[in-house]
Amino acid sequence: MATIFDYLILSVLRAYKYKPGFFRNKFFDEVSGAILSQAVYVPFTALFITAFKLNWKYKLCFSLYFAAIEKLFISIGIFKTRTWRTCYTVALIFFFFHLSDVWLRLLKTGNSLIKKLTLHNVVQLLKIHSLFFPLEVPGILSFGIGRHHSWKEQLKVEPLYASVFALITTWAALKEKMNIKLSVLFLKAALDRVLVKLRVIKAKPIYVLYIVNTFTMVAASIFKKWIDELEENHEQ
């Protein structure tokens, strides 16, 4: 959820930007900052709060802690704001901490929509941060428009691509039929070839996309099983 939010605010609206200084390439540097913030620190803190059933006082303290870190990063130039304000950080993180509690309760009670959204979000996160980013750093994979893919294009095109294909993968995993999963893999392979021809994707070599698609499909099936087991354990 935090990663999807970050895509809208960072990549689309450009309300702020990260400059951690890990890479010379602006795209990799900004993405690495987003990964640490929205895919590690905030979600892991939310998980900790929900797992230990901490009350609103702890949620508020952690929200203020993140706001203090944001102010520090702004002062040393690691984080730069445009239209973003630190008060938004406090309010939204505090809200997301509560959302995490509600989300777990709905998962345990077997809410169909929440289960599907959870599976999609996990698949999308796996594609972007665990599979695509390590391939983009050495130049094996890139996303954009035309011959040259700028870092701004990659920030917009990559998450959009991952989200759309995560929808297809999630649908196939929910069906739990091998023929459907294989058909989806062949369809994705054909679509990827078209996108490579159109220069929306650059892949050297192209079979890395097939490996990513296959791995993601297998992982999605495992994730679905875990989500179902969460509901089953709660009922017992």
Question: How would you describe this protein?
Answer:
By secondary structure, the protein is mostly helical. 76% of the residues lie in helices and 5% in strands. The chain has eight helices and four strands, in the order αβααβααβααβα. A two-stranded antiparallel sheet has the order 1-2. A two-stranded antiparallel ribbon has the order 3-4. The longest helix has 29 residues, at 207-235. The chain is flat. The two termini are 29 Å apart. The mean pLDDT is 90.
- Tell me the series of helices and strands, N- to C-terminal: HEHHEHHEHHEH
Number of continuous helical runs = 8
Order of strands across the main sheet: 1-2
* Proportion in helices: over 70%
| Total E-strand runs | 4
**Ends: how far apart?**
29 Å
Q: Helix and strand layout, with pairings?
A:
Elements: H1 2-12, E1 16-18, H2 26-51, H3 56-76, E2 79-81, H4 86-108, H5 112-136, E3 141-143, H6 151-175, H7 178-197, E4 201-203, H8 207-235
Antiparallel strand pairs: 1-2, 3-4
Helix pairs in contact: 1-6, 2-4, 2-5, 2-6, 3-4, 5-6, 5-8, 6-7, 6-8, 7-8
